Amino acid sequence: MASLGGRSGDRAGGLKTASRGEPSGESGDAAQSQRELPRWMRLYFYGMHGVTLDVLLSSLQGLFSYRDPKLVGFSSPYLCIVHTLTHFALEKIYSQKRCFRGRPVVFHLVFYPSVYIGLQILIGNINTLTEQARVVSGTQLAVHYLLALYFAQVFHRGLSRLQYNPCSPPGAHSQGLPGIVRFLFFGMHGFLDEVLFTSVFNLVEKSDRALSGHTSLWSFLMYGSCSFVVEKLYLHLHFSRGWGTWQRLPLYICFIYTWELSWGLVLRQFGACSWDYSHYPHNFMGLITLLYLPGWVCLSLYQDVLSNVLLRINNICSKKIAVA
């Protein structure tokens, strides 16, 4: 996706650099190692982004219908896979916009939205293809059209501006993605974590083979802010203090439990707390439980992996502004 923009940017950058003098070997190697996001990374993000849209739309629908402050939304691992495939197909469709160079309005307002809406209708009927097809209302069509505009004008363009440098050590990056972007990423990843976790629990406890999972819009703020702070701890403790993984882990766990308890206490005052661990052993006020300790340990270790990957991603636009 970023090949055209990246190559043109490299040419422009090369001319500017040549006029100012020959770059050092280290900076030249770093520039050559920058490339568009690899396919596996895009597919990973596509599934997470699709789950986020599922949760957002279903929670808003529940809010308008039942006025429930818990803002509970739903998705599943199956839908995550479907979204990964459909997002990848939409990526290929978006790459064909060069065929509409003289007619960008036709592509962005007619062609792409038509394909997007068709895919969403197909997803909605994927479980009823052998039965009666589901009727799409005018409101749903309007929502799908607005989402199609978001994909064409914001989503694809934003991803095309990202570059990945797999050869650079994370600690060498003074600037990576902006903080707000990392916060959004961690919030979406929190949705994915909870949907996967609750779907597995529903399978074990209720034998739910549909693997339906749920989370809350409040979890976006909880996970986004918590992971953002934990990442700051990782950068400071690992790169500045030289702490190893098992030295950092207890601090991560203490902060996570404190964060979950604090959010739970606040949300409970407004009837907006979507979890209750009172029926689990070793719980405190029904808001935290040691039963989830292994899960938090795994997520804490995975958090460092995610941070290392994010620190190797750069925004082309922000790099140009910094150079200028």
UniProtKB/TrEMBL annotation:
The keyword Transmembrane applies. Signal peptide: none annotated. Residues 1-33 are annotated as: Disordered. Its main location: membrane. Keywords: Membrane, Transmembrane, Transmembrane helix. It comes from the Eukaryota. One of its GO terms (cellular component) is membrane. It is found in: Membrane. It is a multi-pass membrane protein. The chain crosses the membrane at residues 43-64, 105-123, 135-155, 183-204, 216-237, 249-271, 283-302. Belongs to the TMEM229 family. This is Transmembrane protein 229A.
